[in-house]
């Protein structure tokens, strides 16, 4: 697809951080390339720290350790500025997670990795154990005034840091801890309040502070509403998941529990996604069930067959046949125009859609899946029932529903794209996430396994 408008399969990018190098040049690279970052907002002074160290740099280190290890369910340590046994233990745990020498000393290489892990969600190979909750985990202030949009200062830094610790980081991108209570902070407060069952007004009063303090100090946090009863996870990717050309680590994606992926192949009659040739084979090699998808444009009349020909040629060049183990059926992306207007495709018709579907089905011997919404078919194709026999990938981001509404004539759906803001290990930008409507055996059958 193009960058999503109505359905939003393409997403605004987030900056990619560079992981520290390994091997004999790692220390030199960390010293010469990495820029010291005050992720927690205390200080960017990063001297070598070890047991017995004190001061602002120790507070910054402790706070960053909390941010870096909580995604792996480690209970935060006290960010009190005193580098004692608990801090030394956590440094060692972090060094193991990051593949560094384990000595409990915060030198240049550990600082470089810590800056990266604290600013972006990473996970350790092992999970932390629950331990006693700490009251001081960010180290800015113990005061808890009522805060709202427009506030600034130390208390806002404490709020932003606590929000980063309280919200599940693979769906809620960390806030910049800058002490400025702007729209992004307000939105995150509302998301916390929604998770906690509080009044969602974006104002941080006593009840919000209490819940924030509880979740940020323990090895738990708010996870976004996820469709209940559908345990199999998937995601969708395109060039937008490669900010700055960053590759996707498909092994990390698979290790996180993702079972299937849909990868953008083509758009219209003249665009092939530049990452198709690498992403489709790599996702399949990592063990995911994989489908290529085509974004239908409908900007010229009667181009369905020509768009199908481009798609067929592009995915065959990657080795996709539709018949190999791991090959899901091809997907036809049928939605509103991706030019920012939200209009129906100018020349989109049932007949032109069928031309694409028929040609692709004949080429691969698989009934294609259609990605769409009931509202699109109602508004743009006259509530047609012509696609009732096709499996469906339906997009609907509402949290108030238990399953997406079905188009007229259809009786079930195969995939539900339920969010546009999922963050996965191995991907440097948000992606849309899906659940599968069936068992693992059902997915395996659909993927020829």
Automatic annotation (TrEMBL):
The secretion signal range is: 1-29
**Positions of the Peptidoglycan binding-like domain:** 74-114, 152-212
A Pfam family this protein belongs to? PG_binding_1
Key words of the record: Glycosidase, Hydrolase, Signal
UniProt record similarity statement: Belongs to the glycosyl hydrolase 25 family.
Protein name as catalogued: GH25 family lysozyme
Species per Swiss-Prot/TrEMBL record: Streptomyces coacervatus
């Amino acid at each position: 697809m193009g960058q999503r408008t109505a359905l939003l399969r393409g997403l605004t990018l987030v900056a990619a951080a560079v992981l520290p190098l390994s091997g004999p040049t790692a220390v030199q690279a960390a010293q010469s390339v990495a820029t010291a970052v005050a992720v927690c907002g205390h200080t960017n002074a990063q001297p070598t720290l070890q047991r017995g160290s004190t001061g602002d740099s120790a507070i910054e280190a402790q706070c960053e350790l909390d941010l870096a290890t909580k995604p792996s369910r480690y209970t935060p340590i006290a960010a009190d500025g005193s580098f004692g046994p608990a801090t030394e233990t956590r440094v060692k745990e972090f060094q193991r997670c990051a593949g560094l020498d384990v000595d409990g000393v915060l030198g240049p290489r550990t600082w470089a990795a810590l800056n990266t892990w604290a600013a972006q969600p990473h996970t350790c190979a092992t999970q932390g154990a629950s331990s006693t909750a700490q009251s001081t985990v960010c180290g800015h202030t113990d005061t808890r005034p009522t805060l709202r949009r427009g506030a600034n200062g130390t208390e806002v830094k404490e709020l932003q840091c606590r929000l980063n610790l309280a919200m599940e980081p693979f769906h809620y991108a960390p806030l910049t801890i800058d002490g400025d209570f702007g729209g992004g902070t307000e939105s995150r407060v509302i998301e916390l309040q929604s998770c906690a069952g509080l009044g969602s007004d974006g104002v941080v009063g006593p009840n919000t502070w209490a819940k924030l303090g509880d979740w940020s100090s323990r090895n738990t946090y708010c996870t976004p509403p996820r469709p209940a009863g559908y345990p199999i996870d998937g995601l969708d990717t395109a060039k937008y998941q490669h900010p700055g050309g960053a590759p996707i680590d498909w092994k990390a994606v698979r290790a996180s529990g993702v079972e299937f992926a849909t990868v953008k192949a083509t758009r219209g009659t003249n665009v092939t996604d530049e990452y198709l040739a690498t992403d489709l084979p790599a996702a399949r090699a990592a063990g995911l069930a994989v489908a290529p998808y085509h974004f239908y444009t409908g900007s010229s009349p009667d181009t369905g067959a020509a768009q199908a020909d481009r798609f067929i040629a592009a995915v065959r060049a990657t080795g996709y046949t539709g018949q190999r183990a791991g090959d899901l059926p091809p997907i036809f992306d049928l939605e509103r125009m991706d030019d920012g207007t939200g209009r129906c495709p100018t020349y989109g018709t049932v007949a032109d859609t069928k031309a694409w579907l028929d040609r692709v089905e004949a080429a691969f011997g698989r009934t294609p899946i259609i990605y769409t919404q009931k509202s699109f078919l109602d508004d743009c194709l006259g509530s047609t029932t012509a696609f009732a026999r096709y499996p469906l990938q339906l997009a609907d981001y509402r949290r108030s529903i238990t399953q997406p509404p079905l188009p007229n004539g259809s009786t079930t759906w195969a995939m539900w794209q339920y969010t546009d803001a999922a963050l996965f290990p191995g991907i440097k930008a948000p992606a849309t996430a899906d659940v599968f409507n069936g068992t693992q055996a059902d997915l395996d059958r659909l993927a020829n396994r």
